[in-house]
Every structure is written in C-alpha cells, then in structure tokens.
Write a structure and sequence with these properties.
By secondary structure, the chain is mainly alpha-helical. Helix content is 63%, strand content 7%. Helix 4 runs antiparallel to helix 5.
C-alpha cells in the first residue's frame, strides 16, 4: 500500500463517520429521547409511599428540624448538668474520704535538703496543709538542725511535733 491509497482510505473512513454522525443528530433517533411527561403530586406520593418514604410539606419539615434542634440542646444541657452534679458529688465524697482517712507518705530526705524543701514535699503530698507554718515550726523549735537523712513514713493525721520528732531521730 502506497501513500496515496492510504490517504484515500483514511478520507473514506472520515467521510463515512461524518455522514453517520450527522444522520444520528438530525434524525432525532438517538438514544436520549426527551419525554414531556409531568408527574403529579399524588403520583409522587404514591411512588414514595411504595418505596417506604413519607412526603411532607417544607413548613412541616422546618418545624420538625426546629423541634429536633431544641430537643438536642435540652439533652445536651441535661447531660452537662448531670455531669456537673456528679463531679460535685464525687468531689464532696472525695473530701469526706480525705478528711476521714489519713494520707500516708514515705518521705525521703536527702543530704542537703533544707526545711523549705521538706515542707514543700509534705504539702504536695497533702501530709501538711501549710508549708510555711511547718517550716517556721521546724526553725523555731530547732528541729531544722537535727533533721536526719533517710526514709520516713509520715501520715496526714500527725501533728507538726510528731513529724518533726520522726524525721530527727
């Protein structure tokens, strides 16, 4: 096949496809036929009902959405109130439990620790309530010079004097 015959063959294919395309477009016998059917509201409701759906007016829909939003907000508020009440009750129970049972702590005194560090450690562990008062007690009663290095078991129901005597033995 030479160059000229190949060109002729290609032109023939192009012409044939152009003629078929023009016939399909202008004859109206394409696959996409237009339908001018109008569906009535009753027919649409019937089809929706058969499929398990319910058709409602837009106003009714908007009212339902507003009622749902209100119910969600009320549920969230009730949940928040319940959580807040539970937290307050738990805090109250914890405070009661804390006040009824003494807290135990194993105090480790290292070489070079001063009374302020000891008092701060005890206050963090809720053994004493006022670290400054305990530090002043140690200094005023000369316990600060007698503090021993070691590990001591102390309790929250112990007095300042009992704690001081325990860590100076």
């Amino acid at each position: 096949m030479n160059k000229r015959s190949l060109r002729s063959f290609a032109f023939g294919l192009f012409a044939a496809s152009s003629i078929i395309g023009a016939y399909t477009v202008y004859s109206g016998s394409g696959t996409a036929e237009k339908t001018d059917k109008q569906i009535t509201t009753e027919q649409a409701e019937k089809v929706l009902s058969a499929a398990g759906y319910t058709a409602i007016a837009k106003d009714e829909y908007d009212e339902l959405i507003a009622a749902k939003d209100k119910a969600d907000e009320a549920a969230q508020q009730a949940k928040a109130d319940a959580e807040k009440k539970a937290a307050e009750q738990k805090e109250t129970e914890t405070d009661k439990a804390d006040s009824n049972q003494p807290v135990s702590y194993k105090l480790k005194i290292k070489s070079g620790m001063n009374p302020a560090e000891i008092a701060e450690t005890l206050a963090k562990q809720k053994i004493i309530k006022d670290k400054d008062e305990f530090e002043a007690f140690l200094i005023d009663n000369d316990y600060h010079t007698k503090v021993q290095v070691g590990t001591f078991r102390v309790y929250s129901d112990m007095s300042f004097r009992e704690i001081a005597e325990k860590i100076t033995k």
